[in-house]
Amino acid sequence: MRLVQAWFVLVTLVLVLIPSNAVSGSLHPTTDEAYVTLLYGDEFLLGVRVLGKSIKDTRSTKDMVVLVSDGVSDYAMTLLKADGWIVKKISLLENPNQVRPTSIEDLFKCRKFCANLKHSERLNSGVMVVEPSQKVFDDMMSKVNTLQSYTGGDQGFLNSYYSDFPNAHLFEPNLSQEVLKSRPVPEMERLSTLYNADVGLYMLANKWMVNESELRVIHYTLGPLKPWDWWTSWLLKPVDVWQNVREQLAETLPGTGGGSNPNDSFLVKFLFLLPFLALGFCYYRSFLKTREHLNSLCNHIRHLYYKIRSFGTISYSSVSTSSTNNLNYQAKIPVYLGGISVVICFMAALVALALALAIVPRQVMPWTGLLLMYEWTFTIFFLLFGGYLRLIYQWGSTAALQAGSPSSHSDSRDDDSGKGHHRLTSSCDFANWYYGLVMAFLAIIAPSLPCFLGITALFARLALMVAGGLVLASFMTYASEHLAIRAFFRGLEDRDAARKLIKLNRDFVSDNEEQSDLDDEARMAEAVKKNSRLDFVSDNE
């Protein structure tokens, strides 16, 4: 069964909404019967293309006519003509509904007016069969300003005009011609659910109320869940069939195969590569800083070597010094830092999610959209929250500068504090990676869990996503607080370590000078000793 997405409306409905002199051009029909759909913006172009592909797949010989409004671009009309549509430009006042038809050739057996009944008493204008009639058109135009419309548009007007439609007989396409000729032509007939299956009803029971193999039309009544939007495929199972038809679209114009948009194709490649380029640049800068750090570390090791050579083994009191420093630093951490960090973390996540939704094109393939969504959400979030942690780090450095160094005692303690600084830096970097990777893992698992478990019901999927989101939110609360405290703590430590590094450099220069003096004295003593030996030998001779 092949299903497609678009709007299926009738010429009569459109003429009801516009004066006859507003229609211009020629339809160039080849048959007396046609599939007619409406396009009022390029956003829905893909839906019309998929509709045409599904009609062709049923080997239909009927014309395909698309009524386009002023909001449709010339490129869209050219593409539709290349796909085999007869394009008719009109001025419209109302929007049609969406449907997904398969082979519905038997609907042409409807002789006057056929539509589907929804919610027990309402005519639905998503799928209709109408025999064009000047008499009916004139009658509608005379009542368009007097009859009430509960929707304010075409569907409400049609329900008022065909007020007795709930009592109409069911359309029976399999009746023989003899039986049809023996009966009077009904003014209206009611289509079964097979011709207008509401996806909203599918959501409630996670199955169709009729035999799925006999479905003719699937009607998408959920506003934000259009089948061409990449996120809909991850929520509604019936969209899979629509996507299968989309993938088979021919490349009637360059870059349009599989429902692709040439402009979107370039944008997708750019969006995919940009975060990786930014990541590479950040790693390059990090490498330069790491190289400088290694140079400082080498100088520190050389300094320790000269101290050991000059004064012997150095004693360490790392535990006591580290404990003292930790107590001093913890006393300086603001009590409200954790709460502020949690709020900033969730705000950064919401902003990242909103910006990613705005950046990623809506009509890309489902997997492409999901990949770009994750990529840009993570990138924006880590930039925002990482920038916040950088500010907290600077705050800690400023606090240490104002309060002064908490520990500046003996040389041995200075050396040990330097070791503690390097150890803290390493653990803090590890903590950043740990919290970041766990948050990324939970962010991927939370929306993907229903797919992994094979759950297709929309509400069950949403419930699992909400449960996963709560787990993610709990971990984000814990991680944001600890990362902020670590950043502040690291700022305090690094400011103190910077002072110690200056002192170590001074000591290094001083030790070099002392070592040079000692070497000079040793050489002089050796020379004196050698001269004394020479004098002693000379005296003996």
UniProtKB/TrEMBL annotation:
Name of protein: Uncharacterized protein
Q: May I ask which residue range the UniProt record assigns to the signal sequence?
A: 1-22
Q: Which domain of life is it from?
A: Eukaryota
Among its keywords, does the record have Signal? yes
Organism lineage string: Eukaryota, Viridiplantae, Streptophyta, Embryophyta, Tracheophyta
Gene3D superfamilies from the UniProt entry: Spore Coat Polysaccharide Biosynthesis Protein SpsA, Chain A
Q: Which UniProt keywords apply?
A: Glycosyltransferase, Manganese, Membrane, Signal, Transferase, Transmembrane, Transmembrane helix
What species was this sequence derived from? Answer: Cannabis sativa (Hemp)
TM region(s), chain numbering: 266-284, 335-359, 371-393, 433-456, 462-480
